Amino acid sequence: MGDIEHVPENINFPKEEEVVMDHWKKIDAFHSCLKQSKGKPRYSFYDGPPFATGLPHYGHILAGTIKDVVTRYAHQSGFHVERRFGWDCHGLPVEYEIDKQLGITGPEDVAKMGIKAYNDECRKIVMRYSGEWETIIGRLGRWIDFKNDYKTMYSSYMESLWWVFKEMWNKGLVYRGHLVMPYSTACCTPLSNFEVQQNYKDVVDPAVVVSFPMKSKPGVSLLAWTTTPWTLPSNVALCVHPEYEYVIVEEVATGNKYVLMEARLDILYKKPEEYKVLDKFPGAKLKGEEYEPLFDYFIQVKERGGFRVQVDTYVTQDSGTGIVHQAPYFGADDLRVCKAAGIVGTDTPPICPVDAKGRFVMPVKDFVGQYVKDADKNITAMLKKMGRLIQSATIKHSYPFCWRSDTPLIYKGVPSWFIRVEDYRNDLLKNNQSTYWVPDFVKEKRFGNWLRDARDWAFSRSRYWGTPIPIWASEDFEEVVCIGSRKELEELSGRPAPEDLHREFVDDITIPSKIPGNPPLRRIPEVFDCWFESGSMPYAQNHYPFERKKEFDETFPADFIAEGVDQTRGWFYTLLVVSNHIFNKAPFKNLVVNGLVLASDGQKMSKRKKNYPDPLEIVNKYGADALRLYLINSPVVRAENLRFKEEGVRDLLKDVFLPWYNAYRFFVQNVLRVSKEDGVQLTFSATLEGSSSTDKTQWNIMDRWILSSMQSLIAWFKQEMKAYRLYTVVPVLVKFIDQLTNWYVRLNRRRLKGETGSEDCYRALEVFFLVLLSLTRLMAPFTPFITEHIYQNLRRVMKKIPDTKHDESIHFLMLPDPQEWLIDQEIEQAVEGMQKVIELGRQARDRRVVPIKFPLPEVIVVHSSEPFLSQIKGLENYVLDELNVRKLTLCNNKAQFDVHLKAQPNHQILGAKYKADFKNIANAIKSLTDAQIEECLEKKGVEVCGHWIGSDEMFITYDVGGGGAKDLEAACDGPILTILNTKADQSMLDEGVAREVINRIQKLRKKAGLVPTDDITVYLEATKDLNRIADEFKDYIQTAVKATVKKLKEVTKGINFLIEEEFQIKDSKLKVAIFKVESPEEAARRAQSTPYCKYINVALNETLKPGYEDRGRKGTILLENPVGKRLLTVDELKSEVEALFAMYGKQFRLSDDMGKDISAINADSLNRSTIYVCGVEDKKPAKTVENGPFTRFLNVEKAGKKATVLLENPIGQSLFKSNDDAKQFVESLL
Question: What PANTHER family does this protein's entry cite (predicted)?
């Protein structure tokens, strides 16, 4: 504990955050808090692993912030929270980068270079951006352990995957199948059904209708429609719906006869006159009908029933011709139908003439080597030449793309390994019910629906950089062995198991066959899907069950996980499937789902489009706290989408952080003032002593209110955070900052400034401290930097918190418990009512355009409840002060003032909505009675002319005195009616003008960088009636500004004003000049502390703004440094000014106090003068004078050489952590 430090007027939030980070580094804050919580109950958290092959984006930042908030809260609630960062290291994201880098186009290229060489390349880039990740995440204030991380490429992790898989194998949950799957031709691998959901795009594809002449009916052709002409060479059947009606039609124009579904005739014909219906029958009648094949590539299937019509109910009536062509290895339904018909089977060669890269192979001789999508046009051309093309068009539809390569997927039959899921849907749904999701609808709807339709999981990938699937099999798969550990592999192979379990180290290991004379078993070539790896992280991160079994048992399932809504079909799903199959339970208890962060235009954020600002730029501009709070205080925490807007982050600084900082600064100012004026060193406790029996009736009512509100907030905060409802917590915290700054501080300024007596001041400061500290502690998980910044100064005057061993950081403190005895709901309600009355009074002022500075005679509050009116009476002084009225009248009967409600239609909204009906609706709205309008306000709308009109679609106003009381203005909020008498007499008007004078003095005082304890004299010169008012209200003005006020003509010779400026108030002019009175000590100190180096003061003219809102407007520039060396040129001076005020890219000029440009630098003539940074069109700057440099400085002398270093620049922005650092820097110049 020590003297509290002065708080500068301006703060650069990003720079102060960096100072906080240095403090955390110095005390090793994160690891220290982990050591401090050892032995406490565990709170387990799983971190979903990202890939380190790209940089973090706003989605990562959002999810990371949610995780950081919740785990900080858990730690500060008394838990030990292990927070390990995880890395997804295997799979397509890495391999795709290598394929692009090395020009690899298919498996043959990998075979040439060898798997070891390929995987070595993957290893090189897998952690390419890990350093940037650690830097960015750290800069955002997230505390997570990178040293004790987990990586899916660790051998320990991979061995646990083998164990997980062996457990599933032993339960009969794994099988091998040949199924049609989504397939990435760019990555040469199938994808699982949930991966496909991640990247759908609207595309334009060909849509062709092709004829299939019937053998039994010469001259009649079956018509099939397809959007994938490239599948037609593999056609072996057609399919119709057995129950829907089909027709044979004759085309009038050509005489051609076609068969298609009756409901789909409009695909060919616009009008019924274009065709004649010759026959009509159900689709079942077509079953078995033979047709002419399009191509002869697979003519052999004719012997197994190929090239005939099949029936199935999957055929729909909403697209195509109602006849679907069947290519069994390019469509899941096609394969099912053809298998059922015996056309293909497990013992028949697959009809799949497409290689791993999506290129045709034999026997499709006409298109060999062509990529299937490119072949569409050539196939269509050949069909036209053959006379089989009936229609060629295009269709725009949603189509799946590879989530990694962003290329179109195809559906292709591939041999794959599957985990059974479909048979376990009920178990998944039951275990999902045991979990708690925020928001709940994602669990019940999106995720629940996904589980109800869950399909068997194709987990194998025909790739290289991944965990090898531990299956060793004979060539015919008659003998299969699954391995669950390195030890088991050693025992069965007779060879030492390698330390590294990647393919290049295990593929050559064989296992002797148990069948005499048979060759040894070899490992299958596939690797695990990377989703299987991330879904197994609860076990693999701990090398379970080989290590940390006790730790795992204590922390499984996790207390908390969080990711984006897109993970409902990704990580959340795979976590649940794996856990369900291994332990028959959910792997987590609580889950927070966030929505997606989009660009400001609602599009996906795209590096290519550059449609979003770089996250680090935002952090460096506004600070990490502002970005964190912007994300957390948005719909995205309710799983809705957020359109990211930079101005939203900026506005939080203006509306939340600066008011909060200014309240803290105001507190410190008054603690320092008490120390200086009263000689009292105040210290404060983190809690108030007392109990439910404590008599609080003599306490200041606003103290009681803010203390009660704070304790209610603490209780509510803990309740909501326990329920993980961040989206309710943050708005209330932000609102409380407003309650503290705009209500408590403003209404108690005189008490806090000591104007009501020392004891009352000390009590108010005690309450202020407690509330400020408690708020800072609650905000700490959300905004870790500003809370640490404030706390480090507050703790200088804070008494030791009982039972607290570590208080070096606010994040080491446990969250406060509510002091129930301080809660008084009645007072909270009373002040809430008072606030509504004041806000309504302000509305009434605004409507009459009467500024708050001008006093008014009376405010009338009307309410039917006597207790409510009694509460307002108890707060009368605050109402009078805030509304600047002379009298408060209370009434319980609005009829006494002849108040009536009036409704007017919103022409813009209702006119556009109802058009022809609008006139009748408008007249009806104008005719609504008082009772009807009151009911409308209560029900948020009213029925008018058969239409429901919302209360927000009309304007509702109050008419007082039947319109005759022209000086009365009313405003209402529910049952509260406030009537303002706006008729002011001359004395009130004069007082309003006097307040304007006070306002100009205070603004100029602030502009000069003065603090309340500075001793000043104010000189005024006014014209016209303003001169009279300044004289009559002199005492009033002096009391308000706490300074001597004189006329400018009374100024004595030799006085140099600190600042002076001329203002216009109505039709009069007011000149204000401020002289700062120096104490003898200050004068002596100034005389002894003139900078060694020549310098100039620099002031930003009022027409310009600094590049950053929190930058000061005044600074100092050294013309030389050391003395006689490194003299500045004009260009260098301009560059210095540009950097000083962050004026990058802005046009400005440098001038003297007469407006003349600075075109050359003469150090002697410019020394100690002030130059002005003006706009190009500015004529003469607002003059300011300072007897010395604007900013603090330090002189250093070494070996006869002299130099000066500025300690801040501009005013309020510290440049060094300490004077020692500054001295060390300047000595390096000598």
Answer: ISOLEUCINE--TRNA LIGASE, CYTOPLASMIC, SOLEUCYL-TRNA SYNTHETASE
